[in-house]
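Q: What does the assembly look like in three dimensions?
Context provided by user:
Components: two
Sequences:
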Amino acid sequence: MNRVGLQYLAGDLSGGNARCIAMLQAFQEAIRDYSTPPEKTLTRDLTSKIGGFVSFLIECRPLSMSMGNAIRFLKSRIARLPLTLSESEAKTTLCSDIDRFINEKIVLADKVILRHAAAKIRDGDVLLTYGSSCVVEMILLYAHELGKQFRVVVVDSHPMLEGQKLLRRLVVKGLSCIYTQLNAISYVMHEVTRVFLGASSIFSNGTVYSMVGTASVAMVAHAFRVPVLVCCEAYKFHERVQLDSICFNELGDPDAISKVPGRVDVNFLDNLTDKQKENLELLNLKYDATPSDYISVIVTDYGMIPPTSVPVIVREYRKEYLLI
Amino acid sequence: MGAQKKGATARVSEDPEELARHPLQAILLADSFTTKFRPITLERPKVLLPLVNIPMINYTLAWLESAGVEEVFVFCCAHSKQVIDYLESSEWSSQPNFSVTTIESHNSISAGDALRLIYERNVIHGDFVLISGDTVSNMSLTQALQEHKDRRKKDANAIMTMVVKQSKPSPITQQSRLGTDELFMAINPVTKQLLYYEDKAEYSKGFISLDKTLIADNPSVILHNDKQDCYIDICSQEVLSLFTDNFDYQHLRRHFVKGLLVDDIMGYKIFTHEIHSSYAARIDNFRSYDTISKDIIQRWTYPFVPDVLCGSSAIKVERQGTYRASDVTLSRSAQLGSFIFIGQGTKIGNDTKISHSVIGERCTIGSNVTIEGSYIWNNVTIEDGCQLRNAIVCDGVILKSGAVLQPGVILSFKVVVGQQFVVPAYSKVSLLQQPTQQDSDEELEYADSTSGTGELRSDKLNGDIAPDLSEIASELGTGGVGYIWKVFEGAYDEEWRHSVAPIPTDKLVKLMLDRDEDEELLTQDGNIISASGELKTDSDGNGSEDDDNEDSRDDYVSFEKEVEATFLRAVHENVKVDLAVLEVNALRLSYNMASVDCGGAIFYSMMKLAVESPHNSASELHRNAADIVTTWQKLLKSFLHDIDEEIEVILKFEEMCLESAKEFAALFPQILHLLYDKEILQEDAILRWADEKEGADESDKVFLKRSEKFIQWLREAEEEEEEEDE
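A: Here is the predicted structure of the complete assembly.
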């Protein structure tokens, strides 16, 4: 558990799915090592224990919506355990439940999304993606394997520059790519035929909550009349309604935006006196919210849906995963 | 231009005192002293060849200027007049703070000669940059110079700093993407001293040898094969005097660098400076011409890219790496792919497809033309329906309608290709005849006839057609003009290594197989092929089954050869039979063959030996064969465990008699009898073979008929035995 937390802290683990899977696997381990103290019931004690873990993780880095959903799922599973089960039986059921969750909601969901999205890629397309989303990467590679002829534009932004990771993997596989920064989006959007975006979460009013910059990409694409496809597994949907990205967000390290690694000549913000620093606020937002108007379609494991249908999925999905 | 000048002044001001003392000088060799760019270089010096429509020397000079060099000595040898004329008419002769001086020589045949001449002129006063006129770079010299100077202060023997760059050679072809051979360098990681330099390692040997003192003298040594030599050197004055002292130094690397490293002259040392993010590469052969052109178009060499070098408005960069001059006439239906350059005044017709190519100025391209990965220089006319793939087409060439250039073709100046003519892959075509004999001394560059060629050319093209023209014409189809140069014996195999065309897939597959056999290295096919890119040429359709069969056949042939070699060695060196059995067994395992194959192969080599050993008549041959069989029967027997294997031997023998060793055809029954006598073949095997053959075609039965008597005899013997038993 500590290891996972520290990995979050150091930024070694990023990407909604990777974080979620790491967390669930850590829970699995914790459950295996767990033994009920005398005079307590497993359901109560384990729930509080998990709560402790979660608060530790939150301390390392705020949870994403998807993780929140996963935790909620786990807690409901624990609560619904029949009291008649022995401790070891209860532990194995929980572990297999977690496995099933990872498999069905993440791994298989990705495969389904892949199929749906690849159907939307045609020969000669120019696809734009922003940052590094593992679902989008899988889609691109899958379509490439299918032999479709298309080009990719990878748009990236400071300070994370995650797009470079994606770019490297795509170029190695032989895709023809253009790499550019978010600043140049309006230039490059001219030639783009489709925009594929990943998402951290989708709210029930259809707002997409994703890496900061996604909203600008979607808006520019909308202005250029380029369809925007958001690829997101259904377990990341959330019933919250949010209109802007300020009330719930995560702040990154302010130093990350004040310094440019590898460039000693860009040092305009160094050596400010404390007095001067009082006048300065460095804002390194991690997420932003994209209004549903700018999104053409959401590709999920339940198929391709318009953003207005999100509440339906949330409702159905809730029902379903409480029943698993 | 503006950008560079700013860069230059900025850099100068970074370090004013250092540069104030000595203006930084550079020697630019405007002659590569090789023949790799023939036949083009017979008519124009290599440094003036257009690289993305700008003469190569411009890239080098522009870089030198931006790197803070103030005085450049351009050494011209072959076609020196052309180089001097060009430089005088270009902007370089009138730059403030940047002087270009030419030094002309007519009898220098190597870089060594050039440097000796420059030493005599006594124009170099301090450290200088040594570079050849075909180098493209955008690195900053400041740091390398500083390192060089600091080292000099500490150790006066540090006379040279070589610039190197990371570049991993392909594991299959052992060659970098610039088409140069794998380079081995030993570098001391702390001091960066260069300890060993080998660019012509023997791969067949599979090892390189280092002097052991090298390891004894240095606390740590890193042996690199992933570095590329950029051929940019920062030298001290001593380098020039060293060349003068050692008048046999010709080649910069082969003689000078290796000489210093091996002979340890006066304790002089060479150091390296590695660049990481900036670009530096030298055009050594057609492959690197292709690679560097692509790099320039993809702007890795920024600011030395066509739109910047050509000045303000002449060239515009558009989407997908398209460079287009302002007054290109382009048909509406022409399809321009990515990464192309189209020069001024070029016209492109309907439905023409162009991708990954450079097209120079004032070219006329007709309709339905396909151009892929090709370099077309100025004033070229391409008529309707031509197809060009990975070719270089020089100035003034005319391709009549329907002409096809296969990958790797080089068309030199003013060649005319006739209608519907297909120029075969890797051919080099020139108006000049090939020099009759390849000079063994490859240092001797360009033909010695600078003036002669000009006349020759004008003769031919000034209306009254020379009598020999009709004879030339036949080589390039109707109406064609030019000679197709012959590829020299043995050189053909190597042609693809340095060609503009990407390496064909089948070559790669073959190399990969060879390599697998050599080292049993685990090379994951898919990975390697896709990693090297550009491989989706044409051979996709016809499935992999063919290949597999081919492979196993190849395997068998090479296995047979190995067995034969082993057997011959055993014969000549009197190896014991047991040992020979062991060796053959080992071979069988390593090639994954069955013992059936072994028996066949051994028998084959025995018979071959018998045929090859001197004999006058059939009876002598028979005796030879009998001798060999007697001596080595144990070897053969140890691989013939059952009847199937014996039948295999007979079939093999039959095959031999038909194909390779016809002398045996007459002796077939005798040999069969011999084998029977020696108990190598059992009668069952022979009879079974005979039975099998009964049903075969008449043509197959030739040998059966010949040995009919013998078989008859065998059958009778058997019957008799049976009778006796009863």
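Follow-up: The interface with chain A takes residues 319-320, 338, 530-531, 533 of chain B (CB under 8 Å).
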